[in-house]
Amino acid sequence: DGEFPWGVIDPECTTRVCDLYPATAQCAGGSKVVAAAELAWDDIAQGTHPDCFFISAVTALVRTDPRLVARLFVTQDVSPSGKYELQFFRDAAWQRFTVDDRVPVSDERGTVLFARSPTK
């Protein structure tokens, strides 16, 4: 993606999920990253960036079977360091990827670029 080249995200323009939603139970620690029984397709809203192909795919999965989304998360518990391992089925095999919980924001108010909670 020319607009957001790989590995070139200014840390000043990102924030951790728990900094955006500090009152959530997930940020208190000791909870699961994804509780499939609690997922709903309308829990995900598009952020300010118009490219939403991945968010659309995740929303479709949640609407079809939330357990499929939960299976993507190898790391099951909330990580204090913000590091998570996910798996995606690619080229006829499961492949694991490590990600962090930092999300791109557009300004000091923390306006999330790609996806957000529809109520916050």
Automatic annotation (TrEMBL):
GO molecular function terms listed in the Swiss-Prot or TrEMBL record: calcium-dependent cysteine-type endopeptidase activity
UniProtKB keywords: Hydrolase, Protease, Thiol protease
InterPro entries per record: Calpain_cysteine_protease, Papain-like_cys_pep_sf, Peptidase_C2_calpain_cat
Domain of life: Eukaryota
Pfam families: Peptidase_C2
GO BP term (any one): proteolysis
Residues at the active site: 52
Chain ranges of the Calpain catalytic domain: 43-120
Positions in coiled-coil regions: none
SUPFAM superfamilies assigned: Cysteine proteinases
Recorded family membership: Belongs to the peptidase C2 family.
PANTHER family associated with the record: CALPAIN (PTHR10183), CALPAIN-5 (PTHR10183:SF379)
Record protein name field: Calpain catalytic domain-containing protein
Organism whose genome encodes this protein: Neobodo designis (Flagellated protozoan)
Lineage: Eukaryota, Discoba, Euglenozoa, Kinetoplastea, Metakinetoplastina
